[in-house]
Amino acid sequence: MTLHAESVRPIAASVLVIGHRGASALRPEHTLASYAVAIEDGADFVEPDLVSTKDGVLVIRHENEIGGTTDVASHPEFAARRTTKTVDGVKIDGWFTEDFTLAELKTLRARERLPEIRRRNATYDGQFAVPTFDEMIEFVAAEASARGRVIGIIPEIKHATYFHGIGLPMEDKVLATLAAHAYTRSAPVEIQSFEVGNLKYLHDKLGKGHPNVRLLQLMDDANEHPADQPGTTYGAMMTPAGLKAIRAYADAIGPSTRSIIPLGKDGKLASPSSLVKDAHAAGLEVHPYTFRPENHFLAADFRNAAGDAERNEEGSVNEIRAYLATGIDAFFTDDPRLGRRAVDGR
User: Fold this and answer.
1) Distance between CA atoms of residues 1 and 248, nearest Å
2) What is the rounded CA–CA span in Å between residue 163 and residue 201?
3) Tens of pLDDT, residues 121-168
4) What's CA 286's distance to the chain center, in Å?
């Protein structure tokens, strides 16, 4: 890996560690147990992905399809709910949160999404419920009070256009939920989305009266496009002109790590792109996703011989530090303890 001198700045202790779906390398994602471990391990923010139930309640799942993250398939009473839907242009078979009431979802239990890689996480299958956004906020508030430190919340609104299309828009519900809790009326909140229109809507709704709430434009691969913006691409959004346009409604961007330092043909880190420098020039912070501690996910520079699915803590810390050197302002990690080590120099 070659770092151009102009793209490197000293690692700052103020870089924020975001617990991606909690501490999803150590507990099944998007469970209160996962958030508990993330907070214990020093996360500055914890992330809930938000989808809607049939009765309009915001619940926390990575996707509205829940066959891979709950035990719904083992519930014969819900067998007839299995169906095929098209979400953001992709046909998906399974069970969907919008076909269940909250009471029905509460009869399900979480499962590990990547059991082949995270075998230890799979031992927790069946132990944890699907939390609501309200429950997660109250949990974080209690943890913050007990620990005497503020813990930010960084919710992602999933599939906004799709949920609008089925009569279950989430944006106003997110704002109402934040306003309903004393904690989120003052604690740091950063709302994120891969779409554009809902962030612009939130920007206008928030105005200048919510200084604790910021907006993050997530970005997929350069040749992909936001579900609500088929006429553009994330690659175009990552140009200086595109970043300037994003700054009109958002405070930060969330690109993939490989958009910042791509992989070469050998699987090792290549030279950094200009994305961090360009984003900072536009007045945007950069919060990339996602650092994961298993060899399977690491650049070849940092893998060891322990096996594809094995944890490689030193490799993960060193990979994060390579990205910190580019000047990122925050980052998502499945293992906040390792993120904390990378930032704090431990």
Assistant:
1) 34
2) 15
3) 999 999 999 999 999 999 999 999 999 999 999 999 999 999 999 999
4) 14
Cβ contact 229:195 at 8 Å: yes
Q: Distance (Å, rounded) from C-alpha 112 to C-alpha 243? A: 36
- For residues 8 and 324, the answer to whether their CB atoms sit within 8 Å is no
* CA gap 171, 178 in Å, rounded: 11
Q: Determine phi and psi for 293, rounding to 5 degrees.
A: -90, -5
Measured distance CA(336)–CA(243) in Å, rounded? 28
Tokens at 262, concatenated: 């791509």
From the centroid of its chain, how far is CA 182?
A: 24
Q: Cα-flanking dihedrals φ and ψ of residue 178, to 5°? A: -60, -40
The DSSP letter of residue 282 is T
* Amino acid in position 107: T
Which residues share a beta bridge with 9?
none
Q: What are the tens digits of pLDDT across the range 294-345? A: 999 999 999 999 999 999 999 999 999 999 999 999 999 999 999 999 999 8
CA 310, 128, 36: angle at the middle one, nearest 5? Answer: 70
pTM of the full structure: 0.95
Distance of CA 272 to the CA centre of its chain: 22
DSSP lists the bridge partners of residue 240 as none
Amino acid at 220: D
Q: Take residue 336 and report the two structure tokens written for it.
A: 């906040």
Q: How far apart are CA 97 and CA 153, in angstroms?
A: 22
Set out the domains of the chain in order of their start, with CATH numbers: 5-63+119-344 (3.20.20.190)
Calpha distance 157→299 (Å, rounded): 29
Q: Where would I find the H helices in 223-346? A: 234-237, 240-247, 257-260, 275-281, 313-324, 336-344
Beta bridge partners of 110: 70
Write the burial class of residue 227 (CB in 10 Å: 0-12 exposed, 13-18 middle, 19+ buried).
Answer: buried
